Each structure stands twice: as C-alpha cells, then as structure tokens.
C-alpha cells in the first residue's frame, strides 16, 4: 500500500468514523448533544473567574499542598472548638458545684443561727425560772413573816438577768422632756413641772441593743 493510500484510509469516511486527529464528526454525535466547540472562557464565566484562572495557572502539586494545608487548618480549628466546648462544660459543672455548696452553706448558717438563738432563749428562760422559784418561796412564807427583804433580793436577781442580756431600763425623771420614740404619754396633768415636761412615770420601759422593747408610760405637765 502506498503512502497516499494509507493517508486516505486515515481520513474520515462519509459514514462518520474518527480520523487520526481525534476529531468527532457531527453526524456521529448522539442525538440531542450540542457538538459545537466548547469554549473554556464560557465555563469560567459560570464559576469564579479568579479561582478558575488560578487553578489553570497553578502547579497541581502546589494545589495539593494548599488543599492539605487547608484540611490541616480545618482539623486544627475543629480540635480547638472541641477543647473550648470541653472547657465550657467543665466551667459549667464547677459553677453548679459552687452554687450547690453556697446553698448548703446558707442552710448550715441558718440552722446554726436558729440553734444559737434557741440556746440563748433557753438560757434566759432558765435564769428567769430561778427568779420565779425565789418569788414562789417568798410567797410560801407564813402570813406574819416579813417577805420584803426576799422580794427585794429577787428583784435584784431579776435585774441582774436583764442586765446580762443588755436590757436597759427607760425610767425618765420628772421634769425631763418627752421623747416620743421612748415615751408614751398617758395623760396631761397639773404638776409643778414645766408645761410639756414629764410629770411622773407610770410604768418604766425597756430597750435592748438600741431597740425599744416597751415604751415608758408617762404623764405630762399641762400647758398653761
């Protein structure tokens, strides 16, 4: 076979076979497929032009390295997020424990105060009972017996109990000014005292730790 014959066999025949250049004949294209020439610029226009240009100009190995670096960075960020989430959970658990401990502390302090108050009340009542016992023994004496000395002694004992509890007596002298915060005026009476001044004390009052337990009841000299 001559070279001319070989060349002719290599060319495309009329029935649509491919030639040595690898071109496809329009007639051999499947039905419905556009056999026009594909333009790379058209493809790039449908995606990010900068990215397409960069990929087209970059070395495949360099792209692979960049992808590996991005993957590694992503894994590092994921690991950091996991650590932060773990830290947040740990802090939340610590906060819950501290809150529980604080609530338990408040309950313990409340119970302790109640117990201390109860013991203080019990101690006060015990000392008052001793005073009552002394009064009862005084009343058990014979009718002809002078019990004044015993009563006075019991009164001093009671005053000692009140003094130990920091209870002060509110017992103003006649002629003092009226203090509405600690004095209760029962009536206005004629007296030798200055008008508006205390004429007499009907019943003393008491205060404890600067708190008035009972006001002193007084009478006041009439205004002229």
Write structural notes for this entry.
The protein has 224 residues and is α+β, with helices and mostly antiparallel strands. Among the domains are: 98-165; 168-224, Nucleotide Exchange Factor Grpe, Chain A, domain 2. It has five helices and six strands; from the N terminus they run αααααββββββ. The protein has helices at residues 3-10, 40-46, 49-57, 60-139, 148-164; strands at residues 167-170, 183-189, 198-203, 205-208, 211-214, 216-221. The strands form two sheets. The protein has a three-stranded antiparallel β-sheet. Strand 4 and strand 5 (211-214) form a beta hairpin. Helix 4 runs antiparallel to helix 5. The protein is elongated, with a radius of gyration of 55 Å. The protein starts with a helix and ends with a strand. Residues 6-40 and 42-46 have low confidence and may be disordered. Its main location: cytoplasm. Residues 1-51 are annotated as: Disordered.
Summarize the structure.
The protein has helices at 3-10, 40-46, 49-57, 60-139, 148-164, and strands at 167-170, 183-189, 198-203, 205-208, 211-214, 216-221.
What are the salient characteristics of this protein?
224 residues, alpha+beta, Nucleotide Exchange Factor Grpe, Chain A, domain 2, 3-stranded antiparallel beta sheet, 3-stranded mixed beta sheet, 14% strand
State the total count of DSSP E strands.
6
In the sheet with the most strands, the strands line up as 1-4-5
Order of helices and strands: HHHHHEEEEEE
| Helical coverage, percent range | 40-55%
- Helix tally equals 5
Using the CA coordinates, give the radius of gyration: 55 Å
Shape: elongated
Structural class by sheet pairing and helices = alpha+beta
* Overall mean pLDDT: 77
End-to-end CA span? 160 Å
Strand content: 5-15%
| Biggest beta-sheet profile | 3 strands, antiparallel
Low-confidence stretches: 6-40, 42-46
